[in-house]
Amino acid sequence: MHALALDPRNRGLVLASRLGLLGGGIFLWWLCTTLEWLPPFFFGNPVEVAGRIVGWFASGEIFIHLYTTLLETIIAFLIGTALGLGIGLWLALSPFLAEVVDPFLKAFNSMPRLIFAPIFAMWFGLGIWSKVALGVTLVFFVVFFNVFQGVREVSPVVLANTRMLGANARQLMRHVYLPSAMSWVFSSLHNAVGIAFVGSVVGEYLGSEKGMGYMILLAEGVFDIDSVIAGILLLTVFALLLDTAVSVIEERLMRWQPDGNQTVESAA
């Protein structure tokens, strides 16, 4: 999520507001379940949830499950992004081929791809690769359509002027098409991180021996809502960490883009 430039003096206030909102939400959750305004059996209790998380890390049992889910997520994210970027560029620069495969891409994209999870389990077994395959199908289209649209949005005037300056196909790709595509790619990668997690966890639900989805499934089987919520919170934290990593990479690679203040000053 991109926001307007924030006055550095307000960053501390923003952080404090976020922490206050988080703390207030946890306190309200604890109050409602402690006073049984909400049944703890269905909503858990933040103290018990925290205890589960601490116990998992103290015993070390969580590490193999976290490692498995994160590995599946990262591999699916990288492969899906690479395929989406490569095929998106290829088809965007090949209008005839894009027109030929357009109905097939739309048909595949319209399918609820989670139904492929049991098929991938049959093809690749219950190891990590069936979860990776599912994650790739989810990430690919998110990146593909953004790259395809980004290349198609390149201004014909910019292309014409660049060609007039003697740019060849490789230079056009490096200096025109890729910068345009990357702007759209990074706008989709933040969603792709969460989607890759979805693919991994759903795959683990349907068949696995380890992973956070497997742990959550076991907890659901014995109606342990505190462990279920603890697993969900851990997945959320690590998804946010991966999203932050994408933001850092985006900031480094997209420094050439003017920020909002520069744009306003230039227009003035």
Write the layout of secondary structure elements.
Layout: H1 11-34, H2 40-43, H3 46-59, H4 62-92, H5 95-110, H6 117-124, H7 128-152, H8 156-164, H9 169-206, H10 212-221, H11 225-253, H12 260-267
Describe the structure.
There is one protein chain. The protein is 81% helix and 0% strand. With 268 residues, it is mainly alpha-helical. It has two domains: 9-43; 46-256, MetI-like fold. Helix 7 runs antiparallel to helix 9 (169-206) and helix 10 runs antiparallel to helix 11 (225-253). It is globular and about 75 Å long. Mean pLDDT is 82; it is low at 260-268. Keywords: Cell membrane, Membrane, Transmembrane, Transmembrane helix, Transport. It is a multi-pass membrane protein.
Into how many domains do the coordinates divide?
2
Return residue spans where pLDDT drops below 50 for at least 5 consecutive residues. 260-268
Shape: globular
Rounded mean pLDDT is 82
User: CATH topology of the largest domain, which one?
Assistant: MetI-like fold
Instruction: Give me the CATH architecture of the largest domain, please.
Output: Orthogonal Bundle
CATH class of the largest domain: Mainly Alpha
Q: What attributes characterize this protein structure?
A:
81% helix, single chain, 12 helices, mainly alpha, 268 residues, 2 domains, MetI-like fold
In short:
Keywords: Cell membrane, Membrane, Transmembrane, Transmembrane helix, Transport. The protein is 81% helix and 0% strand.
